[in-house]
Amino acid sequence: MKKLYLLFILTIFPFLCFSQNEKEIVLGNKTFNYTISTNGDCIVPVSYFDLIQKKELLNNINDKPYFEFILNGQLVTSSMPLWRYKGNVKRNMANGGVEIVSTFIGRRAASGVILILDHQYFPESNLIRERMRLQSN
User: Considering the entire predicted model, what is its pTM?
Assistant: First the structure.
C-alpha cells in the first residue's frame, strides 16, 4: 500500500520525492521510482520503475550484488547480511536536485566499516548519481 500511495503522489505532484523506513529507501520524481531494500541486513536495489513508459527497468536483480570489494583479503558484497542500516540525511542542492546520504554499519566480516551511499537525483530527469564511500569505525 505504501508504494501505491507514493506512486500516486509522484504522478500528481511533479517534484522530487524521498521516503525511507528500516526496510527500504525510495527515491523518485515524476519520471522514476528507485527502491533499495535494506531488509535482512543486505543492501539490494529491487526496483527502478520508469513512470513515463510504465516499465520496470531493473531485471535479474538477484544475479549480481549491488557492490563488492575486498576487505582484509575477503570478498564482501551488498548481498551478504552484514549491513545494519543506521539512517540517512536529505539535502537539497543548489541546482534543484536532492542528495540522500545513507549510512550503514558493517558487522561480522565487515566489522569496523562504515558504508556511506550517496544518491543524487534531479527534477524531470531519470539520472541518478551514486557514490559509495567506506570509512573505518
Answer: 0.80
